[in-house]
Amino acid sequence: MRIGELARRVGTTTRALRFYEAQGLLEARRTANGYREYGEDDARLVNEIRALQAVGFSLDDTRPFVECLRAGNETGDSCADSIDVYQRKLAEVDACLEQLNAVRTSLLRKLGTALARHPGTCGVADRNPSEANESEEH
Question: Which H or E element spans position 103?
Fold first, then answer.
């Protein structure tokens, strides 16, 4: 299949496919007239790349999965290098969750402290704009 057909089948653009090729993730075969030709395996590779990117993987992160598929494995995560990437990405996500949980805990503490003071209005919303301007002028 040509590049346009592959792009339609996998839901991307020809520009993205050319970029994947430039990055060494996709290898087109050239016809006698110079057209790029792709096969079913290429569609599988692009689908793998796009699925991994959809969950936050960089293009570089997808390399072990692509190489695993190119080696003839049924799935891109059948190889040890792919498992290593999963583990590294999971550690990154866990670190982000820990940081977000710390922020959440801090906000809950601040909110609890503020609510314990039984806050009322500060008077700012109760003043009309002309009173606010007068007080600023004096």
Answer: helix 80-116
Q: In the structure encoding, which two tokens stand for residue 85, read together? A: 């990437």
* Number of C-beta neighbours around residue 123 at 10 A: 7
Q: Map tokens 């040509």 to a residue.
A: 2
Q: Give the predicted TM-score (pTM) of the model.
A: 0.75
Structural domains in the chain, sorted by start: 3-119 (1.10.1660.10)
Token look-up 């293009």 returns: 59
Q: What are phi and psi of 67, to 5 degrees?
A: -65, -35
DSSP state of 29: E
- With DSSP H G I counted as helix, E B as strand and the rest as coil, what are the percentages for the chain, rounded to 5? 65, 5, 30
pLDDT tens for 63-89 read 999 999 999 999 999 999 999 999 999
- Tokens matching residue 17: 């496919």
